[in-house]
Design goal:
The chain is α/β, with parallel strands linked by helices and 250 residues long. It is built from nine helices and ten strands. A hairpin with a 2-residue loop joins strand 1 and strand 2. The longest helix is centred in the middle third of the chain and has 22 residues. It starts with a strand and ends with a helix. The structure holds adenosine-5'-diphosphate (ADP) and magnesium ion (MG).
Length: 250
């Protein structure tokens, strides 16, 4: 699905990503781990078009997508989740979901989906889609809650839900578990697995919780100091001496 070849991202003289090459296989839930400052988020941001690369190449299903802006990638089904923006916190959970196709993909897709001049029907279709998403994520009871009132974990579920309002192919999740309690982390994990199995989503997941990574991800890619250090199954990775050293060395 995604191939990253010899990617560099420099900030001044600092090489945050220093010649990383990774592949994310179609249908996989690929884990990305590594010590703080390893360059994981920077790699995500380059793939997702948030930051331009210094050099290197990113392809999606063989097509060169290097440096394409986020909205173009969105149309191709490549999504990186973002925190619920402050200005949407007073809107309800359902309304936040209904914003996604209009807010992120613009007029063209909107019209293609619903035809012109059928505003009421569009609203109804969007609301129905939003309710289906909330049901899938088992947070339908939160539909009318203001997004700002959600817990950290519920917000993460809403972020995941936003990827379901469109036809996502590959979704990048940066630290899904940060600040989330165990129960909600399991709910998030279940949602990821179901999206993968039932809807064919490919995932690339950055997460520090090794239980979570071990349960969900195959393969797991380890980054350190901007480079790919190892790749393999979670249990193999954790026995790898270079990996152990990278974690202990920081
Ligand atoms: P990770 O997500 O693996 O913890 P990051 O990709 O966030 O690591 O950061 C990798 C390194 O790049 C860090 O040392 C960080 O300080 C640096 N860095 C990240 N973004 C910037 C930036 N915009 N300007 C300068 N340095 C940055
Ligand atoms: Mg990070």
């Amino acid at each position: 699905m995604i191939r990253v070849e010899n990617l560099h991202k420099h900030f001044g003289g600092f090489h945050a990503v220093d010649g990383a090459s990774i592949e994310i296989a179609t249908g996989s839930i690929t884990g990305l781990i590594g010590p703080n400052g390893a360059g994981k988020s920077t790699l995500f941001n380059v793939i997702a078009g948030v930051l331009p690369p210094t050099s290197g190449k990113v392809t999606m299903a063989g097509e060169d997508i290097t440096g394409l802006p986020p909205h173009d990638l969105f149309h191709k089904g490549l999504l990186r989740t973002f925190q619920i923006a402050h200005e949407f916190s007073s809107m309800t959970v359902r309304e936040n979901l209904m914003m996604v196709p209009a807010g992120q993909s613009g007029e063209t897709l909107w019209n293609a989906w619903f035809g012109r001049g059928r505003v009421a029907d569009e609203e109804k279709a969007l609301a129905a889609k939003a309710d289906e998403v909330l049901d899938f994520l088992t947070i339908d009871h939160l539909a009318d809650e203001r997004a700002g009132n959600l817990s950290g974990g519920q917000k993460k579920l809403l972020e995941l839900g936003r990827t379901m309002m469109v036809d996502a192919k590959v979704v990048f999740l940066d630290e899904v578990g940060a600040g989330v309690n165990r129960t909600l982390l399991n709910t998030i994990g279940d949602a990821i697995v179901r999206l993968n199995r039932e809807r064919g989503y490919t995932f690339c997941v950055i997460e520090h919780d090794m239980d979570f990574i071990g349960r969900l991800c195959d393969p797991v890619i380890v980054m350190a100091e901007g480079k790919v250090l190892a790749q393999g199954k979670a249990d193999e990775i954790m026995q790898n001496e270079a990996v152990i050293e990278a974690y202990l060395g920081t």
